[in-house]
Amino acid sequence: MKTKQESTPIFPSDPRKTYGLMELVKGTSPMVDKGPEETVMSWPNLLILEVLAGLGTTVILLFWSLAIHAPLRDLANPDVTENPAKAPWYFMNLQEMLLHMHPALAGVIVPVIVIIALMVIPYVDRNEDDVGVWFASKKGRTIALWSAVYTTVWIPGLILFDELIRVRSLVPGPEIYPGWVIPLAVIAGLMALLYVMIRRWRPSRRETFVGLFTAFAVSYLLLTISGTFFRGHGMHLVWPWDLPPGALPF
Amino acid sequence: MNRRKSLADRIVQNRVWKSVFRQGYPNTAENQSKVVVNSWFLHIHPVKVRRHTLKITYTFGLGVISFFLFVVLVVTGAWLMLFHVPSVERAYGSIQGLETDVPFGILMRSMHRWAAHLMVLTVFLHLCRVFFTGGYKRPREFNWVIGVVLWVTTLLLSYTGYLLPWDQLSYWAVTVGTNMVGSFPGIGEIMRMALLGAKEVGQPTLTRFYALHIAILPLVMTILIGVHFWRIRKDGGLSAPGEKSSGERTEGS
Fold first, then answer.
1. Are B138 and A62 within 8 A, CB to CB?
2. Which of B44, B112, B134, B175 fits a 20 to 30 Å CA distance from A178?
3. Do residue A217 and residue B128 have CB atoms under 8 angstroms apart?
4. Is B180 in contact with A75 (Cβ distance < 8 A)?
5. Is the backbone peptide bond immediately before A78 cis, with ω within 30 degrees of 0?
6. pLDDT digits over B95-146, tens only?
7. Distance (Å, whole) CA A167 – CA A47
8. CATH topology of domain B55-234
C-alpha cells in the first residue's frame, strides 16, 4: 500500500520527458550537509524581507526628496572660481589629503593602493575558521576598537598640525620632501606603529586585518568629515557653523 | 469541495494567468520552489536559504538596499534623460525647465540625486559589513573583488552624473577632481586629457561624462551586479558561522 507521501511526491517526474544519469561528478554542492532544519524556503521568507527593504528605502527616499530639493547653483562659469571649490562629499577625503601632500599621491596613488589592497585581502587571509563572526572574535573586537581610537586621535591631530604649524613652513622645499617624503613617511610610520601595537595581542591574520581595515575606514570617515564640514575659504579650517555659504558640496 | 470558485481562484487559475506564472500560488513547497526557479526576476535566488541569512543584524540588508537604490536611479535617471540636454549651452536651462515646467520634475531630480548619495553610503557600509564578518573568505574571494569594483563603479557613476546639470557645483567639482589626476608625474596630463577630452572642462567633457553616466557605466554596473548576485548563489549563499564544519570543500565547488 502506498503511503500518502509516496502518492504525492514533492517533485513528480514529468512523464513527457526522459530522465537519465548523464555523469557522476565528484564534489559537494554548497548546501551539502546543511540539514533542512537550518534552511527555509526563499519564498516567502527571504523575499518578504527584500520587499520590505525595497519599500522602506523608497519611502524614506521619497520623503527625503520632498523635504530637501537637489541643489542647483548658478550656471557654470569658468571665470568665477568657487571658494572653496569642493569635490562631491565622497571624494572630500581625497581632497582633504590633497592639502597635505602632492596631488598625485592624494588623488591617484593612495586610492589605487587602497583599492588593490582591498582586493588582495581574501588571498592573504585564507583561514576559514572564523567566517561569519563579527570582527572575528572578542580579541578582534578589542583590536578594532583600539584601532578606531588610535586613528581618531592621529588624523585630527595631523590635520590640526598641518593647519596651525604647517609642514611646508618647517620644510619649505624642495617639493619632494613636503609633497612626497614626509607624507609617505608619516603614513608608513603610523601604519607600522599600529601594526606593532596590534601584534601585542598575538592576533590571527584576520584580526590583524580587522585592525588595519578599521584604521582605513575611520581615516576615510574622518577625512571626509573634515573636508566636507570643516573647510571654508581657501580650504582653511573653520567650524561647521562658520562655513561660508555654498561651502557644503550638496 | 467548494462548488463555487472564489474570485482569487478564477484569477490565478485561468489560462492567461498560467501563461505568465507557470506554477500555482506558492503556498506549497513545490510551488514555492517553482516560483523562484521559473521566474526570470527571482531565479537569481536559491530556492532555500539558511535561517542565518535572514538575520537582520548580520547583513542589515545593505546589499539589497544598495540594489534597490540602483533600481530607483535607473528609473529616475531614464526619466531625467527625457528632459536633460547634454550640451554646454542648454544643459543648465534644461534642468531649470525640469524644475519649473515639468510635473514632479523637482521630485524626480531630487530622488535621483539623493539616491545616488545614499547608494555611495550603503555600498561602502555593505563593503564594511562583508569585511568585518569575514564574508570575503573562500569560496567568496572573487565575489569580494567584484564587490570592490562595484564600489568604485558606484563612485564613478555618481561623479560622472555630478557634471550633467552644468552648474558651478558640478563644474568646479570636476575641475578639482581632474586636476588631481592631471598632477600625476609623466602621464597625468594625458589621463586628464582623456577624461576631459580637452584642456579645460567643456563640451567634450560633458559629452564624455554623459556617455559614461547614461550608457557605459550603467552597463558595466548591471553586468557586475548580475555576476555578483549569481556568485552569491554559486558560492553557497551568504557567509555564515561554522561553514567549514560542513566538510572539506572541493576545488571549484
1. no
2. B175
3. yes
4. no
5. no
6. 999 999 999 999 999 999 999 999 999 999 999 999 999 999 989 999 999 9
7. 55
8. Cytochrome Bc1 Complex; Chain C (1.20.810)
The β-bridge partners of A39 are B50
**B positions 2-21 inside 8 Å of A (CB):** none
Task: Encode chain A in three state secondary structure.
Answer: CCCHHHHCCCCCCCCCCCCCCCCCCCCCCCCCCCCHHHEEEHHHHHHHHHHHHHHHHHHHHHHHHHHCCCCCCCECCCCCCCCCCCCCHHHHHHHHHHCCCCHHHHHHHHHHHHHHHHHHHHHHCCCCCCCCCCCCCHHHHHHHHHHHHHHHHHHHHHHHHHHHCCHHHHCCCCCHHHHHHHHHHHHHHHHHHHHHHHHCCCCCHHHHHHHHHHHHHHHHHHHHHHHHHCECHHHCECCHHHCCCCCCCC
In this structure, are residues A233 and A250 in contact, taking their beta carbons and an 8 Å threshold? no
Question: Are the CB atoms for A109 and B181 separated by under 8 Å?
Answer: no
Asked if B144 contacts A121 with a C-beta cutoff of 8 angstroms, the reply is: yes
Give the C-alpha separation, A208 to A214, whole Å. Answer: 10
What is the model's pLDDT at position B247?
45
Provide the percentage of residues in chain B whose pLDDT is more than 90.
69
- pLDDT tens across A16-39, in order? 777 777 787 776 665 655 566 688
The interface predicted TM-score of the complex, written ipTM, equals: 0.90
Interface A:B, Cβ pairs < 8 A: 265
Q: How many CA atoms lie within 13 A of B68 on its CB side?
A: 19
Label residue A211 exposed, middle or buried (CB < 10 Å: 0-12, 13-18, 19+): buried
Q: Rounded distance, CA B62 to CA B44, Å?
A: 18
| Nearest CA-CA distance, residue B5 and chain A, Å | 24
Q: Is B60 on the interface with A (CB under 8 A)?
A: no
DSSP-assigned beta bridge partners for residue A75: B167
Q: Where are the domains of chain B?
A: 55-234
Instruction: Determine the distance in angstroms separating the CA of A171 from the nearest CA of chain B, rounded to an integer.
Output: 21
Distance CA B206, CA B197 (A): 9
Q: Taking a C-beta distance cutoff of 8 angstroms, is the pair A65, A128 a contact?
A: no
Q: How far apart are CA A178 and CA A161, in angstroms?
A: 14
Of A45, A122, A128, the CB nearest to B54: A45
Distances from the Cα of B183 to the Cα of A162, A236, B66, B187, angstroms: 21, 22, 33, 9
Q: What's the CA angle centered on B119, arms A106 and B58, to 5 degrees?
A: 105
pLDDT greater at residue A208 or residue B180: A208
* Residues B77, B108: Cα–Cα separation, whole Å: 8
